[in-house]
């Protein structure tokens, strides 16, 4: 398996500065800033918390798909999203929790079996393993 790389260039001070994040694959390059981290509005830029959430969604959805396929189920669709709870704590900031919300359509599967696959996918997802804050899993089978 290849190692994955990303890089960042930051210019300026923390509050007025701006950075650019680039993925080694070339699939994404985008701006980020302190302001995009702590405010809901304003500039069109990302932040590390959004990227962690996106990575978790992608990893979990792929792991769930893999586990389902190994048992003979083919998902018609899996939609995952995250809510990363990033808050001021003391003199700094902290990710305190991540809600992982998934809604899936999997023909022929029972709800309790699907929930078992989802729990296993959550435990085996490498990104979820790397995150040390609580990740709250919320899945729906349509």
What is the secondary structure topology, with strand pairs?
Elements: E1 6-11, E2 18-23, E3 29-32, H1 34-38, H2 48-70, E4 77-89, E5 92-105, H3 111-124, H4 126-130, E6 135-141
Parallel strand pairs: 5-6
Antiparallel strand pairs: 1-2, 2-3, 4-5
Task: Give an overview of the whole structure.
This protein has two domains: 6-38; 51-141, GMP Synthetase, Chain A, domain 3, CATH 3.30.300.20. 33% of the residues lie in helices and 35% in strands. The protein has helices spanning 34-38, 48-70, 111-124, 126-130; strands at 6-11, 18-23, 29-32, 77-89, 92-105, 135-141. The two termini are 35 Å apart.
In brief, what are we looking at here?
This protein is an alpha+beta fold and 142 residues long. The chain is 33% helix and 35% strand.
Largest sheet: 3 strands, antiparallel
Our Rg estimate from Cα atoms comes to 17 Å
Cα shape: elongated
Assembly context of the chains: single chain
CATH superfamily of the largest domain: K homology (KH) domain
What integer is the average pLDDT? 93
Spatial strand arrangement across the major sheet: 1-2-3
Number of helices: 4
Query: Which blocks of ≥5 consecutive residues have pLDDT under 50?
Result: none
Q: Which class of the largest domain in CATH terms?
A: Alpha Beta
Q: How many distinct domains?
A: 2
Class from secondary-structure proportions: alpha+beta
Instruction: Tell me the total number of β-strands.
Output: 6
Q: What's the SSE pattern?
A: EEEHHEEHHE
What are the key terms here?
single chain; alpha+beta; three-stranded mixed beta sheet; 4 helices; elongated
